[in-house]
Design a protein that fits this description.
The protein is α+β, with helices and mostly antiparallel strands. 32% of the residues lie in helices and 21% in strands. Strand 1 and strand 2 form a beta hairpin. Helix 2 packs antiparallel against helix 3.
């Protein structure tokens, strides 16, 4: 079986950042997948599940209600819990979306109140949320993103 592209990335070298994972296309439609790497894989513990769940709910709410809502295909957590995937229509670069990602992080850091979609009717695990921890992970990610400007996979 052919190895998928994401397994070709040396995860021991990844740091928090925004990385273009892949661009796919079919029938004239292109989509870009970005890794929003909140923690350094294999160097730091993965993101706490309730915090990651809250980041998913708030991030998706922000992205699907914002200026670029028509460009959003998907936003959600990575299975390894070191970050989230952002999938958008178009052949894009990290530089094309870094402002959007920063705005999403700022939204999460300012957010107060009930988590959108966190009711039994709206979510299969609605109780597992942690806004304070979500803000912690997002604030350290945003600081690293602005300091390091990690937008390309390390060699």
């Amino acid at each position: 079986m052919k190895r998928i592209a994401s397994f070709e990335v040396d995860h021991t070298k990844l740091r928090p950042g925004l990385y273009l994972s892949r661009v796919d296309g079919k029938a004239g439609c292109e989509v870009s997948t970005f890794d929003i790497r909140l923690t350094a894989p294999n160097h730091e513990p993965p993101v706490d599940m309730p915090a990651l769940h809250t980041i998913e709910h708030l991030g998706a709410t922000f992205l699907r209600n914002g200026e670029r809502k028509e460009d959003i295909v998907y936003f959600g957590p990575m299975g390894c819990r070191t970050g989230c995937y952002l999938v958008m229509f178009g052949k894009l670069s990290p530089e094309d979306v870094i402002g959007l990602v920063e705005s999403m992080c700022e939204f999460i850091m300012r957010y107060e109140g009930d988590i959108p979609g966190a009711t039994p009717a709206e979510c299969g695990n609605w109780r597992e949320q942690n806004l304070a921890e979500a803000k912690y992970y997002v604030s350290r990610y945003l600081r690293a993103l602005r300091t390091e400007r990690n937008t390309k996979y390390p060699a």
